[in-house]
Amino acid sequence: MTIRKKNIVKSCILTGLTVLLTLNGTLLHAQFEHRLFSSNLVFEGKIYYGFLYAQHLELEYYNAHFPSFEISIQQMTFGKHPWERAYNYPLIGLSLLYSTLGNNPSLGQGFAVMPHINFPLFKKKDFTLGFRFALGLGYITRSFDRLTNYKNLAVGSNFNAAVNLMLEARYRLNYYLTLTGGIGLQHFSNGALKLPNYGVNAIQINVGLAYRPFRENKEIDDRFYAPTGPYEAIIRRTIEFNIGGFLGYKNMEAVFGQNFLVYHLFENTFIPWGRKSKIGLGLDLSYDPSHIKILEMSDNPVDNKFKILRPGVNAAYQLAISKIACIVNLGVYLGGKEKSNGPLYEKLSLQYNFSKNFFASVMLKVHWGRADYIGWGLGYKFITKYGKKTIH
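RE: above sequence
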């Protein structure tokens, strides 16, 4: 193992310990606030079975059916914060996943540590249907190497982002045990930080058993319930403007022998759509120097760098969870000389509002499911009010 890889492993171990200590500290803090807080904890194990989905012809080589295994610790929410009540008391937790990935010698095996949140969509007595979203750090044991592992075109790095999307059913057998099952997608990708990066996608079904080891404290009175009867409130109509920029990084040494920085400016305008969501329109302007190399390879040299500027317009959607906002943009390019990725693009962003007006964000730029680059950025937002609406 090289010194560089050892440093990466040490960094990841330290990061993992920091996350666990932070989570533990949060739990201990809450334990002093609420008696028998441990009654909120749930431990769960899952067994998956599925197959790799080859979204590109080059990935057909990895086709296989295989099992995966997951253990997780979760916390039941009781409405302490307004967003918990708005989302019908979701489960939040941390999952550890192991997948054989078909034991392909070029691909290896997959591991992931993923914080997750499970949103209930439908509840009736002991049955709950929900949607689980998990995002964390993944590790693929065999990455691309032009000398020793040139057949791996799926991932160019050992460390990747791990994403899990799942439609899950939960049926409570008794106070202690809950039977679970679902279908979902497991994804590994480095966001084009290092090529090649087609990504690994596994479609899987699962069954599991959740165990709640502690009895509920009947004296706990900290659960809040959203009002169910008629009420009257005044809600002002608002428009939210988000303005900011991203700095992206593209490792293209395997193709061009060099790396590139991408500069991306954006603006999103949102109006409220219900209590949790906002919809609107966005504008983008990006400058990607790798487009010059791409055009030169196709005998189409660039005599003016402004010609590779790519303006775009998009439809925007925002889902707010406390200080975090999940933003999806679906757009179309309005210009730019390099057109190999087509006229359409998508952006997936996580935005953290660390003050009333300023936020930090991480963004994944995508073209029809294929990652282009990851960007990190800062931004400024402000809200204007233009009227009021009475709800009965």
